[in-house]
Hints:
It comes from Solanum pennellii (Tomato). This protein is of the alpha/beta class.
Amino acid sequence: xxxxxxxxxxxxxxxxxxxxxxxxxxxxxxxxxxxxxxxxxxxxxxxxxxxxxxxxxxxxxxxxxxxxxxxxxxxxxxxxxxxxxxxxxxxxxxxxxxxxxxxxxxxxxxxxxxxxxxxxxxxxxxxxxxxxxxxxxxxxxxxxxxxxxxxxxxxxxxxxxxxxxxxxxxxxxxxxxxxxxxxxxxxxxxxxxxxxxxxxxxxxxxxxxxxxxxxxxxxxxxxxxxxxxxxxxxxxxxxxxxxxxxxxxxxxxxxxxxxxxxxxxxxxxxxxxxxxxxxxxxxxxxxxxxxxxxxxxxxxxxxxxxxxxxxxxxxxxxxxxxxxxxxxxxxxxxxxxxxxxxxxxxxxxxxxxxxxxxxxxxxxxxxxxxxxxxxxxxxxxxxxxxxxxxxxxxxxxxxxxxxx
Length: 404
Ligand SMILES: *[C@@H]1O[C@H](CO)[C@@H](O)[C@H](O)[C@H]1NC(C)=O
Ligand SMILES: *[C@@H]1O[C@H](CO)[C@@H](O)[C@H](O)[C@H]1NC(C)=O
Ligand SMILES: *[C@@H]1O[C@H](CO)[C@@H](O)[C@H](O)[C@H]1NC(C)=O
Ligand SMILES: *[C@@H]1O[C@H](CO)[C@@H](O)[C@H](O)[C@H]1NC(C)=O
Ligand SMILES: *[C@@H]1O[C@H](CO)[C@@H](O)[C@H](O)[C@H]1NC(C)=O
């Protein structure tokens, strides 16, 4: 959320982040969202603070307990669970993490009710395959993508690096609330937390012996290690700092760390082949977070104005081909489905998961393709053929509209 640039996202962030939400305010915010976003079925869900996680040392950066938002399933969905690990980049040094610990990305004392929409919508037409599931939005407050596990509290700052313990404590809490009897389940994660949705995918599966279908879903979190000198290999240096600061190495897969440096095991491309549970990747080949990080933070402007230079276009083409090479191969879509569009946006499960905002590929949407794959109706490996980014337009009335 932090890094998205369109006005509509800021609008929603304003609604989510800055309202002191009373019942009246949330009704007002809901009305606004409905008008502005065509998000007719958006609703606020209260926060659940996991108090008993504290005794396990599973705490946010500032030492406060971790938290999630749970909306119970209904009808045929009562034994189906989708868990979404919310995104929000990483903090890589104590200055950065201290700053973060004073926001809702580092402290549950600052978290408010959260808006549910998209794949968390309760509308059968908008969200046909998951509308009646138990829906859990896990708040991100450790800064290390749920991988940290350092016993000592930083004495100078009182910071805690305990993301891996948070993941365990939250799942344990949910198991007791009915997740253990799940029939169908999805572990998903957006942006920075697409990675832990892969990292913990098999472990999550192993906790649900009664389930018929367990699959994982990575939303705009397949960041790559670029090799071409036209591009900046920025994620490798970020991951090196994150792994060091948060003590992540021990939770990374041994099958990877035995072959390469731990920071390289933070790249999805280097752990994907050892995951046994099916997982699905949704992302744009020109994901705005990845493009901004690797090509330049203001690159979105020329994409929107359709006047990028030849050098910039070459960088896009190179980034795209490196990205496609890093993805799981096409030969086993049952285990490794993908939906790769070309729009310059970031994440698809929330604002973009409805008929109006969906960013299609050949008339297909993520909603249909992922739903078909999850329910074993049809497996797909969908990659849009455009080799340059498509702009995402935002109309004055707040409607986000994508155009080819
Ligand atoms: C901490 O990280 C931020 C970026 O995340 C960077 O701007 C800053 O220079 C770093 N500070 C130190 C002391 O390394
Ligand atoms: C600290 O956080 C604020 C937002 O809370 C942000 O605007 C600012 O840039 C951050 N400063 C650093 C040094 O990261
Ligand atoms: C690209 O188009 C935008 C909008 O028309 C304009 O503001 C910008 O100056 C143009 N950039 C270049 C490099 O021509
Ligand atoms: C796209 O899908 C819609 C609904 O399934 C269909 O009505 C339409 O004809 C399709 N368009 C193309 C170009 O395939
Ligand atoms: C917003 O503007 C677009 C483009 O002009 C239009 O198609 C759409 O219907 C408008 N939406 C609303 C709610 O007015």
